[in-house]
DNA sequence: ATGAAAGCGCTAACAC
DNA sequence: GTGTTAGCGCTTTCAT
């Protein structure tokens, strides 16, 4: 277990060259005379030498690692972001360091600060407001945000949240619904945008939106909220949920309450997580291209690392996915 | 962006002490005289000093990072493993380095070798056989395997796969089923164990098991395999799937084929992923405590790092979760 | 094309 | 308690 690995000096000695030569060889920095190259090759093979990335990083100041903080890896949306980011990282020979902050806002800052020291750049998903996020700029590392920031000069990636819920509201309107509720997650920074999208659409039709809060972005929270929404004084005919997880839980509980979806109630989510398709009934939702978001965020960061500055916001376009959880108002 | 951070020497100068003193202070190694401590504190605060973990690691030989390789983060089973592992890592002030090998066996070895150099220990989930895995021992790092190995002296965690499918077969038998098929994933090392469990149970009842292969551990693969299984010459009344994802896809496609689950066909999975509960119908499965597996794997590794050797295999006990996708044979 | 030497930022003896 | 010093394994001028 403790057979300590050979150092560059061991290789130099074995090959009868200097450490500088070995270093250059390892980095493919230049060409070598045939005999030297042969001896180098042999010595490295022989000793099983692999250069120590830590020592290397200390000098070059680059780690070839990228940090990614997410709120909850259990959420398939974030899983897909990770998937996409990882794919691009791998392709460029970067390693992904994942930190799941577990929706724990207090731990966020120290966690990010510690992570920042071990990576060349960071992709961040956070619930912090812009004003709480100023210290990010002092990290001295390239960043990409997984949400839009109006005031921070940090590149970001996201979708048009307003449009996403606008589309859902329009879809429900087209189906003849008039009593539409929104079941949100107030702690999410994008919740307001999603409310606004749905509300705008309804107001154009002279209708109002009833807003509820699920307190968590999870299926369990959706289940919990269902009776409050459906058995309260203003029973809706259609519910737009903050995300698919909440929608999935909501639908399940609605079934328990004896409410038929979609005959008596239409339900929609946002995210297009892979399991909405297998739910009962299959969930109508808006695809937000989570995996592509991860890919682009990583690509932007890698570009930034390569010196291509970019402080813009890239917005993916939402796409409505109509399945079986929405139907004409009965 | 490029404001380079202060070094230990800057702090030493600012506080009028030696670098050694600063180092000791940072590591909380001992007590200090009041004036020195005060100046240290002030200087550190003033400069915003944070010690460079790379330089530190190079000397101590410890990185406080743990590597985790998984086959596919999209699979909720692995997601849960990551979740559990991350929780324990955080608790012990370790960072998790995640590598998703994307089921790509060729890339596995170089990826793991590279990862090994940046961490104190590794948790591995792999499709490699024991004989292909010998080189792992040369990594010189503590390891934990997410599967049992008979021949490698490496601690591991897993579940009793034989028992898992044995229980499912028994459950189906109890419901009166006689024509039972297994839809597996041959590339998984544990597939054979799962086949064996189901087969043993059936053989005790004088029955045989029809075995099919889904070629991938995904919902999509389950969908694809469905017609082959259900419309072939030996149509089963119950299907035990390798995992929940395959089962979810299988159920969906069965519905498309006009086959009613569970009236005409019982379907089961393995893993108890969070979305089986929201499927149509809710999926009968076996809970394998994925999150606990991740927790225990990480705990074992951290124990090993602390010098507590342990080369044993820890086996979690499967638990049958009966939902709505299984019913008495009609 | 190759090598000598000076560090990167820090810790770990060992002095005082 | 506090300081001095010698590296950790590597890259990088700058000679040759």
TrEMBL record, chains A, B:
One Pfam family this sequence matches: Peripla_BP_3
Keywords: DNA-binding, Transcription, Transcription regulation
CDD domains assigned: PBP1_LacI_sugar_binding-like
Gene3D superfamilies: 3.40.50.2300, lambda repressor-like DNA-binding domains
Signal sequence extent: none
InterPro entries found in the cross-reference section: HTH_LacI, LacI/GalR-like_sensor, Lambda_DNA-bd_dom_sf, Peripla_BP_I
Gene Ontology terms for molecular function: DNA binding
Chain ranges of the HTH lacI-type domain: 6-60
Protein name: LacI family DNA-binding transcriptional regulator
